[in-house]
Write a structure and sequence with these properties.
The chain has a single domain, classed as 2-Layer Sandwich (Transcription Regulator spoIIAA). 39% of the residues lie in helices and 26% in strands. It has a four-stranded mixed beta sheet with strand order 1-2-3-4. By secondary structure, the chain is an alpha/beta fold. Strand 2, helix 1 and strand 3 form a beta-alpha-beta unit.
Amino acid sequence: MIDGAPPTTGHLHPYRTQGHLVLEFHGEIDVNAALDMAQALDAHTAHPALSVIIDLSHIEFFDCSGLRLLCRARRRILEHSGELQLVCDHRLTLHILRVTGLFPGFAPVSSLKEALDRSGTIEQAG
């Protein structure tokens, strides 16, 4: 558990590294996974001024339910003056972000290392 958040689910593994909260999504992110993850994700994104990296490197499938989770997390993080980076190299998920027009808002990078190296230049609510 991190900061009193609910226990992780099989689809969400949070941990801290180099001043960031990393939220790893795992497996098939569909409507069932989204229902399983929503409460924990909300708890992890409720704190002010967080630097969050959502890492999709470990997903196998991602549909509109996962996209809804990303948008909700992004909104909550930015509303609390936090920072968000997205790690994604999953071709179909990148395609979904592009066709929905969300790609620029998330500006995904291809690795956790790249996200960590990019610290200090990420989007902040202002």
